[in-house]
């Protein structure tokens, strides 16, 4: 029964994808924004919607619940719009023209490290921006690895792999961990490894975040100390329709003995 359900999910996604491909790329973000904001409005009394509003208030961005609701609604709309545009990025942004769509905001040392590879590097980032376009830019200079959880539905996973939604990244299954052959290929190919540090962490190093102390993963630091690969901290921001900005914070992190 599970296999039948998985296949029905695949057929639904494939049908929606076929219809989506008929839509002009410039419509992707505004339609996605409208869908996301509309769903948030319809589900505004749901637990997830209330949590989103509460998080805006806890962060201290505003003290007004009405304003917090508007911010949360806009954020959800932006997120869904982002996803919809990201699914079509590969139609327009390629390894040959990515500089027409992406600007760089980073220290010259960080830019050299990223685009003139002399060894493997670690990219410490979060669930921020359209990394599908960012991966296209980075893979013009070096291979790109990312540790991610594979989908439970094998039909959907093969569909995603076939249509290259990850922009040419090599996905290391989170279930297997980053070790053995994956680490060897990362080092020998002078690849970039993206580690998302804004995921839920039950035990880690506590850091201040919007006035609160939260635990974060130590894996980027531990991998750096064990391999010597420098760390770049940053994100990839959308600035307009199919326009993006790749940001690196400060200089590359290299621990000194």
Automatic annotation (TrEMBL):
<dbReference type="Pfam" id="PF03279">
    <property type="entry name" value="Lip_A_acyltrans"/>
</dbReference>
<dbReference type="GO" id="GO:0005886">
    <property type="term" value="C:plasma membrane"/>
</dbReference>
<keyword id="KW-0472">Membrane</keyword>
<protein>
    <submittedName>
        <fullName>Lysophospholipid acyltransferase family protein</fullName>
    </submittedName>
</protein>
<feature type="transmembrane region" description="Helical">
    <location>
        <begin position="27"/>
        <end position="43"/>
    </location>
</feature>
<keyword id="KW-0808">Transferase</keyword>
<keyword id="KW-1133">Transmembrane helix</keyword>
<dbReference type="GO" id="GO:0016746">
    <property type="term" value="F:acyltransferase activity"/>
</dbReference>
<dbReference type="GO" id="GO:0009247">
    <property type="term" value="P:glycolipid biosynthetic process"/>
</dbReference>
<keyword id="KW-1003">Cell membrane</keyword>
<keyword id="KW-0997">Cell inner membrane</keyword>
<keyword id="KW-0012">Acyltransferase</keyword>
<keyword id="KW-0812">Transmembrane</keyword>
<dbReference type="InterPro" id="IPR004960">
    <property type="entry name" value="LipA_acyltrans"/>
</dbReference>
<feature type="transmembrane region" description="Helical">
    <location>
        <begin position="5"/>
        <end position="21"/>
    </location>
</feature>
